[in-house]
Design a protein that fits this description.
Layout: H1 12-23, H2 43-53, E1 58-61, H3 67-81, E2 85-88, H4 90-94, H5 96-102, E3 108-110, H6 115-127, E4 137-141, E5 144-147, H7 169-175, E6 179-182, E7 185-186, H8 196-208, H9 214-217, E8 219-220, H10 223-236, E9 241-244, H11 253-266, E10 271-275, H12 282-290, E11 293-301, H13 305-311, H14 318-330, E12 334-341, H15 348-361, E13 365-370, H16 378-382, H17 406-417, H18 419-424, H19 429-444, H20 447-451, H21 453-472, E14 478-479, E15 488-491, H22 492-505, H23 508-511
Parallel strand pairs: 1-2, 2-3, 6-9, 9-10, 10-11, 11-12, 12-13
Antiparallel strand pairs: 3-4, 4-5, 7-8, 13-15, 14-15
Helix pairs in contact: 1-6, 2-3, 10-11
This protein binds cobalamin and iron/sulfur cluster (SF4).
Length: about 525
């Protein structure tokens, strides 16, 4: 799995796929390519390691950000090692046709969930059966591509246990301060234009010849099976808390009540989850708080109603967003706001609205991404003509493929780096005044000055001095404790309590990792 130049994490999806293969009697091994585990991207090294396992089949999981390298790897394995390769994951799912065309030696592309397809393929390769008619698998046959439409979904009641031991699991859990990702549902009721759900739900509907409809798109694991799996993970590894990566953890209240009743009884560990402002009510917030939830992550994305409604198609009213952040924090939960700036056609004023809105919401933590048009989504269609084909990044923190004028690019780079200054300037009192001055000074910097490491170093030094001073005097503001991850900011209150919170719950850092 490619995970270089990006936040660290194992793939829950691949753990399930490996579990399914193992249950079917196949041997599995994984290569987790990340410099954070001493395995930076190096094509020759990966080829040598693949060869040392003498595999009958290689599966590669990739999103768009690592697709260029993974396409090259797939081609090299096929042409140099003569081992069949199947490319799967979000990008091949959303772009199966282009992926097959762009990599002429690639044998297979898997569309959607992999447990069923990869097991059927491995079985067929082993038994000499037909590998070209598996539903949801596109196969190369005599130079042409045979596209087999997806038939249905994997039944989540029948999932094999996750094969977490294919990873350096304990080390990754430790490096993520003891947070372990798990998944209890699949699908999301919304279709925000920039999200994989936007493309995936439509694709499944088209391939199955049915309308795009949540009645089949949303699926849940049986609570009993889920809790049994969580207990097995809890008993095998050392960690602090579960992080449910499910898109909208609270979307099915009766199911959630059952799950959390069992969770409290049989697992009893802190957890964090994602949801949306419209998928909470007072009872659900209370249920989460009473069941060990410590952090609720919600997308705000934009403070501009125009951006939310028209471009992003997130139909969440401002009042509802305000209520959700107030209510969760009133119940003692930490709230985290996801934000996205640098959208197609977004003005600087609209981005500033996002900063102002966040200052009003006062979440414990915020996370910022640059808008990134992922192929196969409506957002990518809306960005047509605005994409620089020469540009790509391995994450959406440091850059985007969207084309911008030099002036806009300079403003955006400054704003994303010091966005907590922009948020802070909208706070009341002395913090607001002090950071308004900082923002003014930041905006006055020329491109040459901004590119000078000494200038940026001085900005950081002045930030730390100001933040420490405000902290001493108890003036609420936001800061970034992780210099290598300035997309994550936390409140000064959290910083003040951080040592205790980390010792007690190890909440902060990994609470903000999963997207
Ligand atoms: C947890 C998570 C992470 C974790 C773990 C990453 C991982 N690969 O699982 C971490 C923190 C590392 C991460 C990082 C990033 N992520 Co992320 N992440 C997620 C999240 C929220 C859940 C993933 C998950 O477990 N899903 C549930 C499992 C069951 O589904 P799955 O992973 O898709 O796997 C199934 C199928 O895809 C398939 N499959 C997957 N791989 C393969 C391989 C083969 C061979 C086969 C046959 C099948 C197959 O089978 C699996 C089981 O059915 C998703 C959103 C989502 N809901 O999926 C975003 C998501 C995957 N992330 C995304 C992005 C953009 C990123 C980052 C670039 C963000 C950044 N900070 O810059 C980085 C870079 C990732 C990297 N590889 O290094 C995007 C990808 C969009 C795209 N089109 O490429 C997503 C889809 C969110 C979105 N914006 O829509 N992420
Ligand atoms: S609510 Fe979140 S997970 Fe669901 S479609 Fe929108 S961005 Fe994607």
């Amino acid at each position: 799995m490619p995970n270089f130049d990006a936040p660290l994490g194992v793939s829950v999806g691949l753990s399930y796929v490996a579990g399914a293969l193992r249950r079917a009697g196949h041997e599995v091994a994984a290569l987790h390519i990340t410099e954070l585990l001493g395995y930076p991207w190096d094509l020759e090294r990966v080829l040598a390691d693949v060869q040392s396992h003498a595999p009958g089949l290689v599966g590669i999981s990739t999103g768009f950000n690592h697709y260029a390298e993974m396409g090259a790897l797939a081609e090299a394995i096929e042409t140099r090692l003569h081992v069949p390769v199947v490319l799967g994951g979000v990008h091949p799912t959303l772009q199966s046709a282009t992926v097959m065309a762009q990599n002429p030696h690639l044998s297979y592309v898997a569309v959607g969930e992999g447990e069923d397809k990869l097991t059927a393929l491995a079985d067929a390769l082993q038994s000499g059966g037909d590998t070209t008619s598996i539903p949801g698998l596109h196969a190369r046959v005599d130079g042409a591509v045979k596209r087999n439409p997806v038939r249905g979904f994997v039944d989540l009641a029948t999932l094999a246990p996750m094969a977490n031991d294919i990873w350096d699991f304990q080390r990754v859990a430790d490096m993520r301060r003891g947070w372990v990702n798990v998944s209890s549902q699949r699908g999301c009721p919304y279709r925000c234009t920039y999200c994989h759900n936007n493309g995936e739900a439509k694709l499944y509907a088209a391939e199955r010849g049915v309308p795009d409809n949540n009645s089949w798109y949303l699926r849940y694991r049986p609570p009993e099976a889920m809790v049994e799996e969580l207990r097995a993970i809890r008993d095998r590894w050392r960690f602090q808390a579960f992080s449910f990566i499910d898109d909208t953890f609270t979307m099915n209240p009766p199911w959630l009540e059952r799950l959390l009743a069992l969770y409290r009884r049989d697992v009893d560990m802190p957890f964090i989850c994602n949801t949306t402002p419209v998928d909470l009510d007072e009872g659900l917030v209370r249920l989460l708080a009473d069941s060990g939830c410590r952090v609720v992550r919600m997308g705000v994305e934009s403070g501009s109603a125009r951006m939310r409604a028209r471009l992003l198609k997130r139909p969440f009213p401002e009042q509802r967003i305000r209520w959700a952040f107030r209510e969760t924090q009133a119940r003692g939960l930490h709230a985290l706001a996801f934000n996205m700036i640098g959208n197609v056609g977004e003005s600087q004023e609209e981005m500033v609205e996002t900063f102002r809105f966040n200052a009003d919401l006062r979440p414990t933590m915020m996370k910022l991404a640059l808008a990134y048009p992922y192929p196969g989504t409506e957002y990518a269609d809306a960005s047509a003509g605005h994409v620089d084909p020469q540009r790509s990044t391995h994450n959406f923190i440091s850059g985007s493929v969207l084309r911008r004028s030099p002036e806009d690019a300079l403003w955006l780079d400054k704003a994303r780096t010091f966005y907590f200054w922009h948020v802070n300037r909208f706070l009341e009192g002395e913090a607001g005044r002090a950071f308004a001055e900082r923002v003014e000074a930041l905006e006055a910097l020329s491109a040459e000055q901004w590119a000078d490491p000494a200038v940026q170093g001085a900005l950081w030094a002045s930030h730390h001095a100001l933040s420490a001073d405000l902290q001493r005097r108890g003036a609420f503001h936001y800061t970034t404790p992780f210099l290598e991850r300035t997309d994550i900011i936390v409140s000064s209150e959290l910083v003040a309590s951080q040592r205790e919170v980390i010792r007690r719950e190890a909440v902060e850092r990994e609470a903000v990792e999963p997207h």
